[in-house]
Write a structure and sequence with these properties.
Layout (H helix, E strand, L loop, with lengths): L1 H7 L2 H7 L7 H10 L17 H4 L2 H20 L8 H11 L4 H28 L8 H20 L7 H15 L5 H9 L6 H32 L5
Helix pairs in contact: 5-7, 6-7, 7-8, 8-11, 9-10
Length: 235
């Protein structure tokens, strides 16, 4: 115990954490306020908000699935090449040649399916509990945008295996985008990088799936957590 106190009061520890071992409520509050990851939590929470029946932990489960997707996605990127016809062969190698490939791909796929379902259930829970009402209406909008980004992430990942199911699914999806009033044709052209589903479309969907959409989703999750705290914690 004395060793822990010595470490917590050392200059190196305080240069990182700014506080020693908290002994009072004020010091505990300072630990949360000064922590990079803890500061998104309120200093005090209602006991009923911590019960499983209040939130069903759907928000935390969604965030956990997102972390799984990030880790498995980075590992899959080490083997995958977004070009024709290498993309299909790489998926086959991941499925049958690379020893942890099938495990990583299935974990990534099922985590994606699970995230779509859990985020949708989270929105339903917030709606039926009335947690979107003032002063939380802004965070409700952020949550809806996060759900849309989750769907877009799932959709953009559809093309990457470059098999018949992927190509036809994206063909149908981009044809639906073409039905958008005024900008439909240009929107489809931008998504595909041309007029047909080819190498340009594969590269653009890869960049959207691995870079653009995850960055926006990460930013949105940060704003979502920050607003939960500013709005008084969980409801």
């Amino acid at each position: 115990m004395r060793l822990l106190e010595h470490i917590a009061n050392s200059r190196a520890w305080r240069s990182v954490f700014r506080t020693g071992i908290p002994e009072s409520n004020l010091e505990r509050s300072e630990v949360i306020m000064n922590g990079l990851f803890l500061h998104v939590h309120p200093v005090k929470v209602r006991e009923r908000s911590l019960r499983f029946s209040t939130t069903f932990y759907l928000g935390g489960i969604s965030f956990g699935l997102f972390l799984i997707l990030i880790v498995t996605g980075i590992l899959l990127m080490l083997y995958y090449r977004p070009s024709v016809p290498q993309a299909y062969h790489d998926m086959k190698d991941l499925q049958f040649v690379v020893s942890p490939g099938r495990f990583l791909r299935n974990m990534h796929r099922w985590a994606a399916h699970g995230m779509v379902a859990v985020v949708f259930l989270h929105l339903l829970r917030v709606f039926y509990a009335g947690a979107y009402k003032p002063p939380r209406e802004f965070n409700w909008v952020v949550g809806v945008l996060l759900f849309i980004l989750t769907l877009l992430l799932s959709f953009t990942g559809y093309l990457l295996p470059w098999d018949q199911l992927s190509i036809w699914a994206v063909t149908i999806g981009t044809n639906m985008a073409r039905a958008t009033p005024l900008i439909g044709e240009k929107l489809r052209f931008v998504l595909l990088g041309g007029n047909v589903v080819g190498g340009n479309a594969l590269l653009r969907f890869y960049v959207l799936h691995c870079v653009v959409l995850p960055l926006f989703l990460t930013l949105g999750v940060g704003i979502h957590f920050w607003r939960i705290r500013k709005d008084g914690g969980l409801k």
